[in-house]
Specification:
alpha/beta; binds NADP nicotinamide-adenine-dinucleotide phosphate; seven-stranded parallel beta sheet; 262 residues
Length: 262
Amino acid sequence: MRAAVVAYLDQLFSLSGRKALVTGGSSGIGRAIARALARAGASVVVVARREAELKETVDELTGLGGTATWVSGDLGSREGVRAAAEAAVEALGGEPDIVVNSAGINLRPPLSDLTDEVWDRTMAVNLEAPFLLGQRFGPGMAERGFGRIIHVTSQQAHRAFVQSGAYGVSKGALESLARSQAEAWSPYGVTVNTLVPGFVMTPLNERLSADPDRVADLAARTLVGRNGLPEDFEGAAVFLASPASAYVTGQAVFVDGGFSVH
Ligand SMILES: NC(=O)c1ccc[n+]([C@@H]2O[C@H](COP(=O)([O-])OP(=O)(O)OC[C@H]3O[C@@H](n4cnc5c(N)ncnc54)[C@H](OP(=O)(O)O)[C@@H]3O)[C@@H](O)[C@H]2O)c1
């Protein structure tokens, strides 16, 4: 029976033979997703700027028995995204079957102080990079008849929260982009979905995480009674990357301990 269970789970969720590109794969939620995809059998390339964190991540993934490489690139400009995409294809030894957009920034100035520069930088990393990677890889996935695109958005795509400013706008638009991409490519075997975190204890939230009262308040707003951890995204990411999610597309999947429904 054990062998039959393993074979069934393998058929549903195995990523063996798949190639995955994970932006922001060197930290927080992206790193947990990269680890999960590698452990489920995908060959993974992680893309971010800082080399030390990238190397450390690849060491961790290969230490777990996975296949992983890294590309250092700045996704804050169109040229940077294009160069990173080509370097990732070279590192993977072919086009990715799975693209995860987890790289993101939250600069948080109050709206009255929000400059053009902050707006442009936020849109470039959080929205334009996922758009450009979709344009680069989506049509090829559709031609090959299989693809999985997973964006990481935010509960701030759905509500204003601690100065959502440009950040919330970029994440709301990213959810719309996911629906447009799903409309374009899902008839050809490509699903496009978003993972929606609530409050997750990662370097992105260092300032907020340092305030124990604030952390406790946020935990109390969930239904589970605690804030998120990067590893909470592992199962949902494997599902959305796997054959099992073939009929799930254009969806926002909330991984937030019930934060959004409380
Ligand atoms: N943590 C939360 O509570 C929370 C809540 C809602 C949504 N999210 C979303 O979840 C995603 C992951 O967040 P996280 O909390 O895991 O953040 P994190 O730990 O700060 O990780 C962000 C990642 O993005 C990379 N990155 C940032 N700017 C980049 C750029 N210009 N070019 C290339 N890579 C870049 C970072 O690497 P380098 O700095 O080395 O480039 C890092 O790998 C983000 O999209 C975020 O908006 C997080």
